[in-house]
Write a structure and sequence with these properties.
By secondary structure, the chain is α+β, with helices and mostly antiparallel strands. It folds into 2 domains: 3-89, Orthogonal Bundle (434 Repressor (Amino-terminal Domain)); 98-223, Umud Fragment, subunit A, CATH 2.10.109. The protein contains 6 helices and 11 strands. The strands form 2 sheets. Strands 3-2-5-6-11-7-8-9-10 form a 9-stranded mixed β-sheet. Strand 7 and strand 8 (179-189) form a beta hairpin. Helix 2 packs across helix 3 (33-40). The radius of gyration is 20 Å and the shape is elongated. It starts with a helix and ends with a strand. Residues 76-96 have low confidence and may be disordered.
Length: 226
């Protein structure tokens, strides 16, 4: 089952258990009845996106990422309270924290507003990471043999990086005017930071980081899909 179906079924279960119709739900989450009907009605025309799911959880008093966990489909009401500790938590590591999977191009363009993007795939966080973490699907051969095209790497913008770490960085492509991203090892040499390709045959192997570059986040985990 995909993430959108999971969110929809959990929301419908919550509505049934709390005795809410679409109009009552719209009042609780401060959305118009027509908008609520489009994603929570019997025949929805829209998916419940990342930003909307977090908004609904907040308005209904649910723990963060409650609507992303399939275990909550049949027990939504019994788990609908949360503690102050959960409200203040900034590091999430259990199965309720699902990370969006994005390609290199998508990550470069949407990293500032990834919560508003329509993401087709989510995977459970393999370990503790910040709420802004995402899974980057690698492309190309510049990081072989350590990393291959198609590998999935958790990038965490909430983690500090140092020389020797693997990072995702981006800059505005001067030819197209659009953001372009790259996954590389960051190294510090002679007073400058460089993005380094592991593949010795890749050219250029070293790219100096100037003001046009932004180091988005540090690589934390490699996700294996079996």
């Amino acid at each position: 089952m995909d993430i959108h179906s999971t969110r929809y079924r959990i929301l419908r279960a919550l509505m049934a258990e709390r005795g809410l119709n679409l109009t009552q739900l719209s009042d609780k989450i401060a959305r118009s009845p027509s908008q609520v009907s489009s994603f929570a009605g019997a025949n929805p025309s829209k998916n419940i996106g990342e930003k909307n799911a977090r908004h609904i959880e907040d308005c209904l008093g649910l723990p963060p990422y409650f609507m992303d966990d399939p275990r909550n489909m049949g027990t939504a009401e019994s788990q609908a309270t949360h503690t102050p500790e959960q409200e203040n938590a900034c590091v999430l590591g259990d199965i309720q924290h699902l990370l969006p999977v994005v390609g290199m191009t998508t990550a470069g363009k949407l990293i500032d507003n990834i919560a508003d993007a329509e993401i087709d795939e989510f995977v459970p966080a393999p370990g503790p990471c910040s709420a802004k973490a995402f899974v980057l699907r690698l492309e190309g051969v510049s990081m072989e043999p350590e990393f291959k095209s198609g590998d999935r790497i958790v990038i965490d913008p909430g983690q500090d990086w140092v020389s020797g770490d693997y990072v995702f960085a981006r800059r505005i492509d001067t030819a197209t005017g659009t953001p372009a991203g790259t996954f590389k090892k960051i190294v510090y040499e002679e007073g400058e930071y460089y993005l380094c390709a592991i593949n010795e045959d890749w050219h250029p192997r070293y790219t100096r980081i100037d003001d046009s570059w932004q180091v988005v986040g540090k690589a934390r985990y490699q996700v294996k899909i079996l």
